[in-house]
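Subgroup meeting minutes
Present: P.N., E.W., G.H.
Scribe: E.W.

1. P.N. recapped why we're keeping a running log of single-chain structure predictions: easier to compare across weeks, and new members can see raw inputs and outputs side by side.
2. G.H. added today's entry (407 aa).
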Amino acid sequence: MAGRSKVLAWVLPVVGIGALLAGSYSVAANRPQRPSEDPPRQPVSAPGAKSSAKAESYIGAVGMTEPPGEPILISAHTGGVVDAVLVGVGDRVAAGDALFRVDSSRARADLAVAERRVDASRAEVESLRGQIPTRRADVSSAQARIVSAEAGIESARATLAATESDLADRRNLVRIAEAVEDPRAISGEERDNRRFAAKSAEARVEEARAMVSDAQAKRGEAAAALESARARLALLVDERGQDGPDLLAARARVAEQIAAVQQAQVAINLLTVRAPVDAVVLQVNLRPGEFAPAKEQTNGLITLGRPAMLHVRAQIDEVDIARFREGARAWASPRGDAERRLDATLAYVEPLVVPKRQLSGRTSELVDTRVLEVVYEVDSGSTPLYPGQQMDVYIEAEALTGNGRQP
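Output recorded in log:
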C-alpha cells in the first residue's frame, strides 16, 4: 500500500506536467504563420495630407456617379413574355425608340374581335337607316287609309240619310193608307205593300247605320295604324329629319366599339416599351423568352442614362451639414486613385435629409445616421468615369473649434 501511494503521489503528476508541456510545444510549433500583405489599393488620403491645410477645413463625403437626372429604370407597362429585346448596352436611343417588345398575340386577337364588333354595329346603323323609307311609306299608307275611311264614312252617312228619308216616306204612305176608311179607295193589298215597303226601308236604314259604324271603325283602325307608323318612324328620324332614339343608340354602340378598338390598340402599343427621353442604354437585364413583370423593381429591366456630363451624388453626414456652403470649392477622387482629383461643380442640393444609403466600407463609418445629398457635375477628362462608380468627395468648409466656427 505504501509503494502504491508513492506512485500515485509523485509519478502521475510528473507525467501530467510532461504531457502538458509537450502539447503546448506542439501547438506553438505548428501554429500557421500569416505573412503581412500589401493592401489591394492605397488608402484614400485626405485632401490636406500633402499640404499645410488642416483636415478640419474640409468635409469628406462618399459619392456615387450617376447620369444627369439619375438613372432611368425602365419597366414593362403590361406583364408578359418578352418577344424581342431591340437594344443593347451602350446604344444611343432617341425619345420614342423601341427598347423591347412583349408578346402581343392575345392583344391582337382582342383587337380583331373589337374591329368585328365595330363592323357589326355599323351594319346595324345602316340597316336602321334603310328602314326609314319603309316606315315613311307605312305612315303614308296609314294616312291614305284614314282618307279612304273618312270618304267611306261620308258615303255611309249619305246612304243613311237617303234610307232614312225613304223610310220616312214609306211610313207616311203607310199612315195615309191606314187613315183611309173607305176600302174602295185603297185596297188591302196596297196597304200590305206599303207596310212591306216601310219594313224594307227600316232594314235599309239599319244597314246604312251599320255601314257608318263600320266606316268609323275602319277610320279608328287607320288612325291607330298612323300613330303606330309615326311612332316607329320617330324611333329612326324625327320631324326635323334628325336621328331618332334607335339610330342614336346604334351610333352610340358604334362609338363604344370604336373606343374598344382604340383601347385594344393602346394595349398593343403598351406592349412595346419605348425610351422616354434621348438616352444611352446603361444596362439590359432582360432576354427574349423571359417574363417581364409589370411592377416596380429594384433594378429596371433596362436602365437608361442621359448622355451628358456625369453627376456625383455626395452624401454629407448630418454632423457636417452645418459646415456645408453651396458655393464652396469641391473635388472628387475615384476610389483607389486618391491622386486624381476632379473639380466638381455644384449642380443642385436636395434639401431633404435622408437615411444614409451609400457606405464606403470603413469600419469607423456610422450607418445609423442621416445625410444631405448634394449633386455635383464632374468632368472626367481623358480618363473615363462610369455610372455607379464610387467617389471620395471633398468640400471646402468652415472649421469648427471649441469656441465656435472659424473660416
